[in-house]
Succinate dehydrogenase/fumarate reductase iron-sulfur subunit
Amino acid sequence: MSAPETAPEATDDPPATGSSTGTGTGTAYDAHFRVWRGDIEGGELTDFTVEVNEGEVVLDIIHRIQATQAPDLAVRWNCKAGKCGSCSAEINGRPRLLCMTRMSVFSRTDTITVTPLRAFPVVRDLVTDVGYNYAKAREVPAFVPPEGLGPGEYRMRQEDVGRSQEFRKCIECFLCQDTCHVVRDHEENKRPFAGPRFLMRVAELDMHPLDAAEDEGLDRKSAAQEEHGLGYCNITKCCTEVCPEGIRITDNALIPLKERAADRKYDPLVWLGNKIRRRTT
Ligand code: SF4
Ligand code: SF4
Ligand code: FES
């Protein structure tokens, strides 16, 4: 089963730039947490009253609950620096990184609810099976190097380099995949829809000036529509709003990819050019 729905969050967060461990200073207070506990069979929210110290992030508090009250509480994390993408969960119903959400964004009297990612099956407690995303990653054909050029001989405009660099900031936290309404409550859409993270990858490759996929007969624009479900996206920008890397997924990847796919399909000159090109190759 997927995680339960939780109340919407009341407070926006300021930029979080890292985390620190609690120092036990005089600013400590007790916070009320509700943490979802269970497995694929079902579960429930469990209440904890837990100490919070200045400078701490939500992951620190989950660790303190593990250390003092629930040693078997399952949570996935690695870097505690917003770089590995493994601590994704939902805090007050919003997809977030546990290690990059500062406790200072909440009021001391708030109840803070932590639940697993809603769009993916629960393994245990806050840990979900994100295998869907790896399956989708494998469905996107890799960059096709241009014939006759070796690594080191590529030349690209800075604008093209910048676009790839923005998309390559992705830490594969899958918060964008989790928040996208196309799959969030629609398991049946997971087969035809790749999700924002992987449509962004298709867009990166389709706009890459050196990608020679078309010379190999691979039409990434058609594939975006027919194999990766680009048409399901109605550019709501929810994916962009939750991306911890600030990648402008919708504006810089999804909308341009939609425009390119529409040009390919409906512009008669583009259609004719492609026909001629295909015949001469
Ligand atoms: S913009 Fe598209 S991919 Fe992003 S959340 Fe909305 S529907 Fe999903
Ligand atoms: S695009 Fe952003 S939200 Fe989506 S997986 Fe990458 S880093 Fe996470
Ligand atoms: S633990 Fe690595 S991103 Fe949070």
